[in-house]
């Protein structure tokens, strides 16, 4: 197998029921439940295991009124990944649901966009509305990792390992990055919150927590250019991901899915 081909796993750890109108700027005419799932992702290949995002823990689930289904460490262990052996963690952005559990990976180097750290520690955080999706302790924990020499900053598109690249998108958070991964079925794009649901990128719709709407919409074009087809784009919070992709192993249905194989639909 070429030395830049990877397996990818989506690991669900949380859930939140909500009305459809809450997921789109301009609302939604359908008065239905349109829930979000919460995921972290594992990229497994010749460069070792790279974890994308670190989720939230039980205390944060309670504070934010979200359901923690399985702690992320349990999800990783279900596919034989020991968190303390993970050497690289890509943080798509610093929102509370993507950068908690910061003691879980004691030996990892963290990969973050310049702009995201500047945003989360700068003047925009003077505004309560923009602060809302951030947690002070999460941001401080990342600053401490900078001072411990454990953060690699990226600016734009950058290689994390052969076949694994980050791409700055912005929009939803000022320094949001997505991740492209070379797999045996082609380049798969882990969009994270560059598209929360399939409906966002498919319909040109925008999630209400947004720094810059224009960048969100341009981001959809960037992702579509990166991915060889719509089936190579993995949204960050869509429950359909676990319906479309096979379980990583029998017994892990509804929890851990394999993304480097073709989706069922
Ligand atoms: Zn977010
Ligand atoms: Zn999110």
Question: How would you explain this protein's 3D organization?
Answer:
- By secondary structure, the protein is an alpha/beta fold.
- The protein has helices at residues 58-64, 72-78, 114-121, 128-131, 136-147, 198-203, 213-226, 240-244, and strands spanning 7-16, 36-45, 48-52, 67-68, 88-90, 109-113, 151-154, 158-161, 164-168, 177-183, 186-192, 233-235, 256-258.
- Strands 1, 2, 3, 4, 5, 6, 7 and 13 form an eight-stranded mixed β-sheet that branches. A five-stranded mixed β-sheet has the order 8-9-10-11-12, covered by helices on one side.
Short key terms for the protein model shown above:
265 residues; alpha/beta; eight-stranded mixed sheet; five-stranded mixed sheet; globular; binds zinc ion
Summarize the structure.
With 265 residues, the chain is of the alpha/beta class. Helices cover 24% and strands 26% of the residues. The strands form 2 sheets. Strands 1, 2, 3, 4, 5, 6, 7 and 13 form an 8-stranded mixed beta sheet that branches.
Portion in helices: 10-25%
Number of strands: 13
The low-confidence runs, each spanning 5 or more residues with pLDDT under 50, are none
Report the oligomer: single chain
Q: Find the structural class using helix and strand composition.
A: alpha/beta
Report how far the terminal alpha carbons are from each other.
Answer: 27 Å
Rg on CA atoms, Å: 17 Å
How much β-strand is present in the residues? 25-35%
Ligand identities: zinc ion
